[in-house]
Amino acid sequence: MSSTELRRTALDATHRALGATMTDFAGWDMPLRYGSERDEHVAVRTRAGLFDLSHMGEITVTGAQAAELLNFALVGNIGSVKPGRARYTMICREDGGILDDLIVYRLGGTEAASSHYMVVANASNAQVVLDALTERAAGFDAEVRDDRDAYALLAVQGPESPGILASLTDADLDGLKYYAGLPGTVAGVPALIARTGYTGEDGFELFVQPEHAVELWQALTKAGEGAGLAPCGLSCRDTLRLEAGMPLYGHELTTALTPFDAGLGRVVKFEKEGDFVGRAALTEAASRAEQNPPRVLVGLVAEGRRVPRAGYQVVAGGEVVGEVTSGAPSPTLGKPIAMAYVDPAHAAPGTSGVAVDIRGSHEPYEVVALPFYKRQK
Prior knowledge:
- This protein has eight helices and 20 strands.
- With 377 residues, the protein is α+β, with helices and mostly antiparallel strands.
- The strands form four sheets. The chain has a six-stranded mixed sheet, sandwiched between helices.
- The chain is globular.
- The N and C termini lie far apart (46 Å).
């Protein structure tokens, strides 16, 4: 494959047969939408949506010191993750800058000698994370393996997703907590069934061998017919995560920011044993954030119809007080929304006099607490 040729998932032909609009995303040819992105968004909020997420980067870490390696390489306390559970964490540079945000699954092994973890990185950062973990593994009795080609990843998200999946598996979905995973069989296909997601809804992610992806997609589609399941592309995934106030790497998270700058200092576990990459810089960042609070990530809701985009300036009283990181029309709220980093003086929900500079016009916005949308449990 040439360096310019896009990678295709095992479901590529399926997407094309469904008439998907395809797009280059992090070097992968991915479905952006199948029809109306608004309809796909609403399907996930009210019924269920089916996603191909096979572009995500799976990295397997095994060995007697797998937990110790991950504790050293990442900012979280991975050693405390129990078998069958998952944790949201980050990998940082030595200077504390965020390389990526990750989900780490502990797949098995009650004995240290059989520790088995799967690190799931964002598609755009998968190689960076793989390289960093491989480099940081020096001196540890642990193996880091690139498993990006070993998995296809399908996600079913939305209020009808438990019922749809339950009709295809005898796995204990009721006992599967949020941020947990268990091996099972779905429509006869061996899968790791995880209860995570990036939409703000209940849902499941299914890690399977690529050769089983098409039959699983078809089985889920058939099982979801009566529940209004819709195939969904990356476009509505972005508006769903934006409404749910979930950060996107390259927008809310970058190497220029530490977890404390991003308001996510809670993922950094200073109390864990031993050193970890970035500990010294992050200790300073935590102290700095306490004494001189950095800009705060807030929600902005438009009073008008104009949509803000990443990089637009937030202004108040003629001064620049922040910058938009993500913006889009919100199908759920019926108004344009944005996430932005703003000065603490303008971060309180209800703060008046805040506007976004949209091509020279200062459009009024209301500051709100994140998330914009929270599902009823």
